[in-house]
């Protein structure tokens, strides 16, 4: 029964409509991508990558269809004239052939289309491999085994493997399709006593199998070069077994594979299955015996009994290559005596320590929010950043900086107009010197408020404070800015009077014009938002801004780079600018140790998700090749070539000419804010924990391997301590902005093994890595031990500040060389909740200092240093004698009561709305006086005549309610080390 004409037409019309819609969305995606790259002035990347992908797709698709489809057609055209009857009688294949034969053209076209799609897509995905192959630059250095230039392994070898893998896949598919076709159309039958095949089928399949084995011979030959990446030995790279057993085995196997291929080709002229069977058996047997058993025997009976001696030369190759690949070959290691006697230090100490950063950027984000957020729809990043700015005298001082970004409309006003047209940008740069606080323990801001005010504004010439491009999650969404300049509707910042807000109309160049109907249509399709097409607030001046996260933005214009996880803002030439570090990486550097990038860069900051985690991809080569900037107002991305000697950077510059500018074009202001990148430093410290050893015998024993210590301020001690930016002075040097870290022994000891710093300021010393190795016969306290000492010796007076609704927060424990020894500095914050339901935030209250076996504490660094180098030393917790005079008890109880009252008054001042900072400061002074009185009362008590026993002290922290308990007769009262105030 035939369908009426109209229903028969509906199906093709529906298919056509679906195809048109799909093509429109495909066009929208490609076209909007082009518009974005055009607005960013990086169409070279868009066209270069797209054209390469299209060409590779076509090549891969055509080759697969040509090889697989051609063999399938050949099998069909050489089918026996009499079909299945050729071998007498039918078979199970007959019913399949009868079912498929009427649709064979459709099946062939659909099948080849799928093969073309998958193979073309796979080939197109290798565009980076292809571009590196055709643009590869020489490394100017040869590997130790084959004497090939390193570029062969980094650029050529991956492409050769890619081509071989593709050909293997194509030939295997061809064998399967040809065999099926021959079987269906009677070319061969599986009948007793064996396989019966036509001459055409036998020749065809013999040739295909011969080609497969021939490819295997080529693969064996190139597998020899892959031995430089072997992980068979003690370290990565060709080991003793690889060089003396696997290498000759691969050569022999390549020759055997050539012989077997010839035997398969001989099957063309000699019927029967003997030759193919012999060649297949020979290939398998030789692969097992020569390629597997022989190397295993060499490893077991020659290498393992004397691995250190056998592997020594190859360990040395690995050490040399790894240090070169990770740019560690110029690392300076020097012995450091680490003086531990403070009495040998001059009372004034080393003047360079006065600028030590006390503000912890990982803790103070909430403090910045509560004191500088202004409105709830603004926010700062989860972690702040450290940079350098001049003070009033022109001296560079470490600053903790942040950008006030927009989070989105307030709750209840989160509609499309507010989200896309009104709440479009953040506003303002907030900064505070890292080495000082105000009278209340808060950052002493020199750039703050809206509009931005403060000394730093005049010093830096800040003239554009708006932030349309930032790190907040809202930057993942688009906004539409511009519009009507005569009627601005973009919220700029709150103000008193009038409408209560200042508005702005965007006049930058960071977006795509959406005034035309076509552009509005494609973006409406891209985001599934009809308002983009229908809104009357969008006109010819409107721009749609998207991909607004600086890291995502740079990644899009430079997909060949691996980016640092922590972009940071700076005021550059009067504008807020995000600065990012870009790396060129590879996992194809011969003999270099391959490790997971994610594992090497993991520490407390990545575990807390305050900075982006790196992928787990393995690498064995890295360079900080690019410094990138993103303008926070107009989104302009600029790439500067930083490591001009990097062959990978030269290769990508050749592939995309003109997109990477020379570093000489960087402004002086930008150079002043360049710093050594964190993730590169983490990779290098991870590698140097082993590869500071250059002797293969010592490396094999591993007794001097190091670990990065756990972060002592975290509950989980397995989380690594992050590196810290601070200005420090290395022996024989001058104060320099540096990135620093410490090492402890790998064998479980918490003593300090080494201190490492890298010069982080752009200049002649930039990137200078120096390691101070501690004496191996003298225990130097590590960060964990120092943290324990702080908490045990100063528990009394610190716990006084952490009672009630407050809690203590320990800031970053900084380590720095000081006066011939090592100085530890740690800020201590009291986290309090302000009034009005605000979130709690930390306020700096104490600074802890340790040098050798002496500890100091004070409200600022100067007083803490005075306790160590000039004042009375803090002593361990000790109980007093049982018979304490009543007068001393009375003084102690009075001091505790006064301390508690001062603390409660300080809490009330903070919990008022807004917080009463004057009252808070006055209460803090009274708390200081009470703590000093408590220290004096303790000093008047008689010294214990017997060995002290561990008895709990009667500090306010021992009473949950926070009220001071009376000291019972015969019970110990707090000693100076427990409850003493600052000197």
A few lines on this structure:
The chain is α+β, with helices and mostly antiparallel strands and 983 residues long. It is built from 28 helices and 33 strands.
Secondary-structure map:
Layout: H1 5-40, H2 43-77, H3 93-100, H4 104-124, H5 127-135, H6 150-184, E1 188-191, E2 194-197, H7 199-226, H8 240-266, H9 274-303, H10 307-325, E3 332-335, H11 365-372, E4 378-379, E5 385-390, E6 396-403, E7 405-406, H12 416-422, E8 426-427, E9 429-433, H13 455-460, E10 466-467, E11 479-481, E12 490-494, E13 501-504, E14 512-513, H14 517-527, H15 531-534, E15 543-545, H16 550-557, E16 562-563, E17 568-572, E18 575-586, E19 595-596, H17 597-600, H18 604-607, E20 618-619, E21 621-631, E22 637-641, H19 647-655, E23 660-662, H20 668-673, H21 678-691, H22 696-701, E24 706-707, E25 724-728, E26 736-745, E27 754-759, E28 769-773, H23 783-793, H24 795-801, E29 807-810, E30 814-818, E31 821-832, E32 841-851, E33 854-858, H25 861-869, H26 886-911, H27 917-939, H28 976-979
Parallel strand pairs: 3-28, 22-23
Antiparallel strand pairs: 1-2, 4-7, 5-6, 6-9, 8-10, 11-15, 12-13, 14-15, 16-18, 17-18, 18-21, 19-20, 21-22, 24-26, 25-26, 26-27, 27-28, 29-31, 30-31, 31-32, 32-33
Helix pairs in contact: 1-2, 1-14, 2-4, 2-6, 5-6, 5-19, 6-7, 7-8, 8-9, 26-27
Give an account of the 3D structure:
- The chain contains 28 helices and 33 strands.
- It has 983 residues and is α+β, with helices and mostly antiparallel strands.
- Strands 3, 24, 25, 26, 27 and 28 form a six-stranded mixed sheet that branches. Strands 16, 17, 18, 21, 22 and 23 form a six-stranded mixed sheet that branches. Strands 29, 30, 31, 32 and 33 form a five-stranded antiparallel sheet that branches.
- A hairpin with a 7-residue loop joins strand 25 and strand 26.
- The longest helix is centred in the N-terminal third of the chain and has 36 residues, at 5-40.
- The protein starts with a helix and ends with a helix.
- 47% of the residues are buried.
- The model is unreliable at 872-885 and 942-983 (pLDDT under 50).
């Amino acid at each position: 029964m035939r369908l009426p004409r109209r229903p028969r037409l509906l199906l093709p019309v529906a298919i056509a409509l679906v195809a048109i819609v799909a093509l429109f969305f495909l066009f929208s995606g490609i076209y909007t991508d082009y518009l974005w790259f055009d607005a960013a002035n990086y169409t070279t990347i868009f066209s270069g990558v797209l054209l390469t992908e299209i060409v590779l797709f076509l090549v891969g698709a055509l080759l697969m269809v040509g090889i697989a489809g051609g063999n399938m057609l050949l099998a069909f055209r050489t089918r026996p004239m009499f079909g299945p009857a050729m071998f007498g009688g039918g078979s199970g294949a007959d019913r399949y052939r009868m079912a498929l034969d009427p649709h064979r053209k459709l099946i062939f076209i659909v099948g080849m289309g799928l093969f073309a799609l998958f193979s073309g897509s796979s080939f197109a995905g290798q565009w980076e491999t292809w571009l590196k192959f055709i643009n590869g630059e020489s490394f100017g250095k040869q590997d130790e085994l084959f004497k090939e230039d390193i570029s062969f392994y980094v650029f050529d070898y991956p492409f050769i493997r890619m081509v071989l893998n593709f050909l293997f896949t194509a030939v295997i598919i061809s064998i399967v399709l040809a065999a099926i076709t021959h079987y269906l159309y009677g070319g061969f039958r599986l009948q007793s006593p064996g396989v019966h095949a036509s001459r055409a089928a036998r020749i065809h399949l013999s040739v295909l199998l011969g080609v497969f084995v021939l490819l295997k011979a080529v693969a064996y030959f190139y597998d020899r070069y892959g031995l430089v990446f072997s992980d068979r030995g003690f370290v990565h790279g060709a080991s003793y077994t690889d060089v003396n057993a696997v290498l000759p085995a691969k050569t022999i196997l390549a020759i055997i594979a050539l012989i077997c291929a010839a035997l398969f080709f001989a099957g063309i002229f000699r019927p029967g299955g003997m030759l193919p069977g012999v060649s297949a058996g020979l290939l398998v047997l030789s692969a097992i015996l020569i390629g597997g058993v022989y190397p295993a025997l060499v490893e077991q009976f020659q290498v393992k009994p004397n691995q250190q001696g056998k592997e020594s030369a190859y360990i040395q190759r690995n050490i040399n290559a790894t240090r070169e690949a990770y740019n560690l070959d110029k690392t300076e290691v020097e012995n450091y005596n680490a003086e531990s006697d403070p009495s040998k230090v001059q009372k004034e100490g080393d003047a360079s320590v006065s600028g030590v950063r006390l503000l912890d950027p990982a803790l103070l984000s909430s403090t910045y929010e509560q004191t500088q957020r202004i409105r709830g729809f603004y926010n700062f990043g989860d972690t702040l950043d450290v940079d350098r700015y001049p003070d009033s005298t022109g001296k560079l001082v470490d600053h903790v900086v942040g950008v006030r970004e927009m989070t989105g409309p307030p709750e209840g006003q989160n509609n499309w107009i507010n989200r896309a047209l009104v709440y479009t940008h953040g506003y303002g740069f907030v900064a505070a010197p890292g080495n000082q606080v105000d009278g209340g323990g808060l950052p002493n801001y020199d750039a703050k408020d809206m509009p931005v005010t403060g000394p730093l504004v005049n010093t830096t010439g800040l003239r554009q404070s708006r932030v349309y491009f930032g790190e907040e999650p809202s930057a993942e969404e688009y906004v539409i800015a511009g519009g009507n300049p005569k009627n601005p509707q973009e919220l700029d910042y709150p103000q008193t009077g009038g409408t209560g807000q200042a508005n702005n109309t965007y006049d930058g160049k960071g977006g795509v014009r959406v005034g035309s109907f076509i552009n509005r249509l494609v973006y409406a399709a891209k985001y599934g938002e009809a308002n983009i097409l229908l809104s009357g607030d969008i006109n010819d001046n409107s721009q749609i801004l998207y991909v607004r996260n600086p890291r995502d933005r740079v990644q899009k214009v430079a997909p060949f780079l691996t980016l640092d996880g922590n972009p940071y803002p700076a005021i550059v030439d009067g504008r807020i600018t995000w600065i990012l570090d870009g790396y060129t990486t590879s996992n194809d550097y011969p003999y270099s140790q391959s490790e997971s990038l994610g594992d090497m860069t993991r520490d407390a900051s990545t575990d807390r998700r305050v900075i982006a985690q790196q992928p787990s991809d393995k690498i064995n080569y890295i360079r900080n090749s690019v410094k990138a900037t993103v303008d926070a107002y107009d989104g302009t991305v600029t790439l500067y070539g930083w490591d001009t000697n990097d062959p990978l950077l030269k290769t990508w510059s050749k592939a995309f000419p003109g997109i990477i500018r020379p570093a000489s074009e960087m402004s002086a202001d930008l150079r002043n804010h360049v710093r050594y990148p964190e993730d590169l430093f983490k990779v290098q410290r991870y590698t140097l924990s082993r590869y500071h050893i250059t002797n293969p015998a010592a490396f094999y024993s591993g007794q001097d391997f190091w670990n990065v210590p756990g972060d002592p301020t975290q509950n989980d001690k397995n989380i690594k301590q992050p590196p810290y930016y601070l200005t420090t002075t290395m022996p024989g040097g001058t104060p320099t902005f540096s990135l620093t870290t410490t090492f402890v022994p790998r064998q479980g000891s918490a003593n300090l093994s080494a201190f490492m710093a890298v010069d982080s300021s752009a200049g002649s010393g930039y990137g200078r890595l120096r390691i101070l190795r501690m004496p191996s016969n003298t225990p130097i306290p590590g960060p964990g031990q120092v943290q324990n000492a702080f908490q045990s010796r100063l528990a009394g007076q610190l716990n006084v500040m952490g009672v009630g609704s407050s809690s203590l927060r320990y800031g970053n424990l900084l380590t720095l060389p000081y006066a011939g020894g090592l100085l530890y500095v740690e800020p201590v914050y009291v986290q309090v909740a302000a009034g009005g339901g605000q979130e709690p935030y930390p306020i700096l209250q104490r600074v802890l200092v340790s040098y050798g076996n002496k500890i100091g504490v004070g409200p600022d660094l100067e007083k803490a240093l005075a306790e160590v180098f000039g004042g009375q030393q803090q002593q361990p917790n000790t109980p007093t004698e049982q018979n304490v005079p009543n007068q001393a008890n009375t003084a102690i109880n009075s001091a505790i009561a006064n301390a508690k009252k001062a603390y409660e008054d300080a809490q009330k001042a903070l919990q008022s709305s807004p917080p009463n900072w004057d009252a808070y400061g006055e209460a803090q002074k009274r708390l200081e006086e009470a703590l000093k009185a408590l220290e004096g009362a303790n000093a008047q008590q008689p010294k214990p005549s017997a060995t002290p026993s561990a008895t709990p002290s009667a500090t306010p922290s021992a009473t949950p309610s926070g009220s001071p308990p009376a000291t019972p007769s015969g019970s110990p009262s707090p000693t100076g080390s427990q409850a003493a105030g600052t000197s």
